[in-house]
Amino acid sequence: MRELTYVARNTVAWREAPDPTLRSDEEAIVAPVTATSCDVDTAILAGHAFIEPPFALGHECVARVVETGDAVTSVAPGDLVVVPWSVNCGTCDSCRAGLTAHCTAVPHMAMYGAPIGGSWGGLFSDLVRVPWADAMLVPLPAGLDPVAMASAGDNWSLSWRLVAPHLKNRPGARVLVVARGSIGLYVCDIARALGASEVLYVDPDPEHRALARGFGAATAETLEPLPHRFDIAVEATGRVDQLALAVRCLAPEGVCESAGNHFRPGELPLLDMYLTGVTLRVARDNVRGHIPDALDLARSGRVDPARVVSHVLGWEQLPDALPEKHLKPVFVREGAPKTIEGPASP
Predict the structure, then answer these.
(1) How many whole angstroms separate alpha carbon 76 and alpha carbon 57?
(2) For the chain, does the N or the C end have fewer beta carbons within 10 angstroms?
């Protein structure tokens, strides 16, 4: 089989690898049918990764089950499934507590798309082995488009977690989103659908701001300090100065969720945070537990994640198109189920 491999800054290539095989009766082999890039992939391609190449890339996909072990009961060959980004067993103490990104049955941060906790391959590959298939794989509900939901294994479900639980606890909350791409736009859509009284989306990109306005958000090119204005803030820029501004805009006892990849150090307004009593969470998400709820919201018709998909491209275009700067490109394998229309390939 082939796996798309990060080989150097802004350079990926197909490389041959052995076909994966089942190693236990709890495993599955899947073939990605739609896959998309994450902000982490963008950072890796820009040369900001702290792991030396080469390694297989990709950790967001919808896949078709090819083979299952005898003990697998939740999925069967032919099923379309969401593959979560992190590898987890589902039964250790961490997994039972919902901390699937910290599963103790595998090395810490075991994941697809980067050899941080071992080498598990990438989801821009022709075939992928999934250990503990019953714990990991989530069937894609009927009626949901695999292109629109290509990000459900990470960014879409992460975006649900960044705002949905807080809006449940704070109905009608005012939401600030400081972002540079798909996560922030997903959050705008979800926040309005779940009853936020106000959503402000801040992003220097005019096309992104236009999409946010389509989700009912007010927009701004830059963020001016707005003390005590928002109940919930979501930062997805990877820039500490923007995170600091977002925190300064929180009302007393407000909550800030940081989904940015902070590869560079910076300073936070700790005294202001202390005096305001804000809560700040900076974390890689335990996404597996949120995927069903995020898929349910997508199936409800109250949100439209397909609008964030910027390009629908063929699987064979991955080496050339992935390093290009697109908001949310989705790569589709030939013969994949019916998908949404998308802009022509570049």
Answers:
(1) 26
(2) C
